[in-house]
Write a structure and sequence with these properties.
By secondary structure, the chain is of the alpha/beta class. It has one domain: Alpha-Beta Barrel (TIM Barrel). The chain has 9 helices and 8 strands. Helix 2 links the parallel strand 1 and strand 2. It binds pyridoxal-5'-phosphate.
Length: about 220
C-alpha cells in the first residue's frame, strides 16, 4: 500500500475529532509530500536537527509536533516553529522553554510526557512528580500545558489497555481542576501497533509512523 492509501485507511477508521499525527522521522521530504497531498497537516518529528531542516523545506501550513526527548540546549532552535511539544518531563526543561519563548515573545504549547509504565529506559515524568511539575507550569507566563502524552511499554492488548486507562484517569483528574496554564485538550497516546486500543481508552491524538510510511530503515550516515 502507498502512503496516501494508508492515511485514508486510518482516517476512515478513526473519528474526525481525533488528530492523526503522521510521524515522519527518518522520512524524506518526498515521502512527507505524499502524505501532505493525501491531506496530512500534522507531522511528528523526534530529533531537533532533522525537524528544523524539514521545517525550512516543507509547506508552511503544517503543524509540527516535537514528539521526541528534548534536550535543554536545543530549545533555542525550535522557538516559533513547533505547534506542540509533546515531551515536557522535568522542571529544568520547563524553565528553559519559559526563558527562550519569553525572550521571543512567544507562547510554547506543551504536553507533559508521563512515563506511565515506569520504564527506566523511557523519558517522561513519573506520576508522583506530576504535581510538582504542574505547579511550576502555573508560575510560567510563556508556557501553556494542553494535555498529556505517553509512550507505553511493549506488551499484549491487556497491558496496553491498562496503561492507556491509567493515562485517561490522570487526564480526567487534571481536567477537573482549576488551573490558569493547564488545560486538558489533548491526550496523545497510541502508535502504529496500538492506536485503536488507545482510542478506545480515550486518546484524541495518535502518532503513527510505520502504519503510514512503512517500515523505518535507520541508515548510518
Ligand atoms: C516513532 C514514534 C512514534 C511512531 O511509532 P510507529 O510505531 O512508527 O507508529 C510515535 N511516538 C513517538 C514518541 C515516536 O518516537
Amino acid at each position: 500500500m502507498c502512503i496516501a492509501e494508508n492515511i485514508n485507511k486510518i482516517k476512515n477508521e478513526i473519528s474526525d475529532d481525533i488528530t492523526l499525527i503522521s510521524v515522519s522521522k527518518t522520512r524524506t521530504i518526498e515521502e512527507l509530500e505524499e502524505a501532505y497531498q493525501a491531506g496530512a497537516r500534522d507531522f511528528g518529528e523526534n530529533k531537533v536537527q532533522e525537524f528544523t531542516e524539514k521545517v525550512e523545506k516543507f509547506h508552511s501550513d503544517v503543524r509540527w509536533h516535537l514528539i521526541g526527548h528534548l534536550q535543554r540546549n536545543k530549545v533555542k532552535y525550535i522557538v516559533g516553529k513547533v505547534y506542540l511539544i509533546h515531551s515536557l518531563d522535568n522542571i529544568k526543561l520547563l524553565e528553559e522553554i519559559e526563558k527562550k519563548y519569553a525572550a521571543k515573545g512567544q507562547i510554547a504549547n506543551v504536553l507533559i510526557q508521563i512515563n506511565i509504565g515506569r520504564d527506566p529506559n523511557k523519558s517522561g515524568i513519573l506520576e508522583e512528580n506530576l504535581e510538582e511539575l504542574i505547579s511550576a507550569c502555573e508560575k510560567c507566563s510563556s508556557v501553556k500545558v494542553k494535555g498529556i502524552m505517553t509512550v507505553i511499554p511493549k506488551g499484549d492488548e491487556e497491558s496496553c489497555r491498562k496503561y492507556f486507562a491509567k493515562m485517561k484517569r490522570i487526564y480526567d483528574d487534571l481536567a477537573k481542576k482549576q488551573y490558569s496554564n493547564v488545560r486538558m485538550e489533548y491526550l496523545s497516546m497510541g502508535m502504529t501497533g496500538d492506536y485503536k486500543i488507545a482510542i478506545s481508552e480515550g486518546a484524541n491524538m495518535v502518532r503513527i509512523g510505520e502504519g503510514i510510511f512503512g517500515k523505518r530503515m535507520y541508515k548510518n550516515i
